[in-house]
DNA sequence: TTCAATATGTCAATCGTTTGACATAAAAAA
DNA sequence: TTTTTTATGTCAAACGATTGACATATTGAA
């Protein structure tokens, strides 16, 4: 690979001059500028970003740790994060923790070793203290870690409220909630909170099932939901904590010959792209994924530039009523 | 951030010694090793991977260019690629081209500038020559570029054949195929080829509609499929070139009150995780995504290490018969 | 005692780029 | 003509690590 020296030699100038045209600093005549460009062209020269990063002590990299990019919600989130990062010259290193503590820790170390400019954490299996030691520009999704670390979330409580209220208002008598893992102290737990409070408040019978830590074991989802619906055949409303879980519910209702929304109503959470393509199209609570992603990138950049930033970034949700309710 | 010098100073040794324990080279007594580890611990030292990369002229980075990670197929692919890359100490830079020629070109340049060790291309909007100039370890998904560049694909022709045959064998009289964009010279076009040949061979009436380049405009998909089914109400079988497209078909059939599989049968392609959760569960052609991802990573590594590798990596597909046929 | 193995140090170059300090020369402006 | 501006060059340090060549000292074994 050609270096700046090769370019200088070919253009008949010094590396200082080449660097000057490369970085638009100091005086440069059009003639030399052209010579230099031509030499770069001829050699197919690409400045070595690694060397640049080393020197300016900035990698223009953002680390993204999520459970897995193959989960539709995180896939969409990652897509938008990369989009907005790219707009301002940042690159994204992607890390799938699979909600494995060891992996998550490893990834944090790895990202620090690689001197990423900031870390966006969408996976949280570790204790608060472990994150506090990270001592790095961080943005968190759905988890409050400390007074300094900014976080992003949707209005989880509001979302839970919208979903639960809808089921009750539509006349459900016994409603179920399928929550994420409640041990991970996520703000998403507020969805469950809202569910519990509202169902109690309205005197509606309710059950909650909690998913295991390993969210990606398909068969487990299935048996869990199946058990739930078979044990409580009178459930006529389900609030699932994600659209993917809602898909499982729809599927199992279909297999159990429960008609949606006549026999049972279903509300999801996230509003992933495919939600509107389910049959029937899924009623769900929309998180503004794109705006949240944009915000995450901005929060990293602001920290890098030492600009002031908001610590709490809670985004409004929206009820997308479709045909499962 | 502490450097190797700080560690050396604190441990009371030279940087050479620290480097020796860091890289396990030469003679080191247990005592010094411990001192050094302790100093690293105390300073919370992380070797600067950027400096290391610069020196060894290897970034341990793989660039991944795909249309978008938010598409379920590519999300799953990306997830596995990152998984296998991580296993052998590689990191993944994701790039969503959105099938935009300019972006794709930019990303290739960017990845080269960042001296990634190899590029996995799952997005192909450029001409063959443009890739030939890349002159870099590359692996390609679903596209044959030159004699040197290895590619990975599923047995597209076989898959198209399985899908079409199934529809015909199930008694469909008029079948439709929704293809990807045929201008991009992808191997996926062989799915359409198979469809055309088999329907002709069996004397079954057939229509093909082709999606536009911008695969991510939702409304466009919808109107296209709607038009197809309204213009040809006698279509009783559809082979969609991806599961996501199949989801649209199912959805529209649902809206048009066409019963699946009684009135119309549907076959998808990919077997994304959600496919089995569709209602009805989608019959589809399974690509072995995980194996393909693993292969992609291996092909990069082999090129980096200058080991011999296969140029053609065509993976068998499998008919997953579920309830839409 | 002598030799080899073990353990550490010294020094400096290297990876590719940026940048500051300073020198010099030509062109343009006063 | 003199001064200022513009254009380029020279040189060397710095970013943070690795590594090779070589020196020196301490062990332990032969």
TrEMBL record, chains A, B:
One of its GO terms (molecular function) is DNA-binding transcription factor activity. The keyword Transcription regulation applies. Keywords: DNA-binding, Repressor, Transcription, Transcription regulation. It comes from the Bacteria. SMART domains: HTH_LACI (SM00354). The keyword Secreted does not apply. Signal peptide: none annotated. Pfam families: LacI, Peripla_BP_3. Residues 2-56 form the HTH lacI-type domain. Gene3D superfamilies: 3.40.50.2300, lambda repressor-like DNA-binding domains. InterPro entries: HTH_LacI, LacI/GalR-like_sensor, Lambda_DNA-bd_dom_sf, Peripla_BP_I. This is Catabolite control protein A. It comes from Anoxybacteroides voinovskiense.
């Amino acid at each position: 690979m050609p270096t700046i020296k090769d370019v200088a030699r070919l253009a008949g100038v010094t590396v200082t001059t080449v660097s000057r045209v490369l970085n638009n600093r100091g005086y440069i005549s059009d003639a030399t500028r052209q010579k230099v460009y031509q030499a770069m062209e001829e050699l197919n020269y690409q400045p070595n970003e690694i060397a640049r990063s080393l020197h300016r002590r900035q990698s223009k990299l953002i680390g993204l740790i999520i459970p897995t990019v193959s989960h539709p919600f995180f896939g969409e989130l990652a897509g938008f994060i990369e989009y907005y990062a790219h707009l301002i010259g940042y690159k994204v290193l992607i890390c799938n923790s699979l909600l494995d503590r060891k992996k998550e820790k490893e990834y944090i170390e790895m990202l620090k070793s690689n001197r990423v400019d900031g870390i966006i954490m969408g996976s949280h299996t570790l204790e608060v203290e472990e994150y506090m030691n990270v001592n790095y520009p961080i943005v968190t999704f759905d988890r409050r870690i400390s007074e300094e670390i900014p976080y992003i979330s949707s209005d989880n409580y509001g979302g839970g409220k919208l979903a639960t209220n809808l089921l009750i208002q539509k006349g459900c008598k016994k409603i179920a909630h399928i929550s994420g893992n409640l041990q991970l102290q996520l703000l998403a737990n507020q969805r469950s909170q809202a569910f519990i409070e509202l169902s109690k408040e309205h005197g509606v019978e309710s059950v909650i099932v909690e998913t295991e830590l390993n969210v990606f074991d398909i068969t487990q989802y299935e048996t869990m939901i199946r058990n739930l619906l078979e044990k409580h055949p009178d459930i006529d409303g389900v609030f699932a904590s994600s659209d993917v879980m809602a898909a499982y519910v729809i599927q199992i209702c279909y297999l159990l010959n429960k008609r949606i929304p006549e026999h049972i109503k279903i509300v999801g959470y996230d509003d992933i792209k495919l939600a509107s393509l389910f049959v029937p199209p899924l009623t769900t609570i929309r998180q503004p994924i794109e705006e949240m992603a944009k915000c995450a990138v901005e929060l990293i950049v602001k920290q890098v530039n030492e600009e002031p930033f908001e610590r709490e970034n809670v985004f409004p949700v929206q009820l997308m009523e479709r045909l499962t309710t």
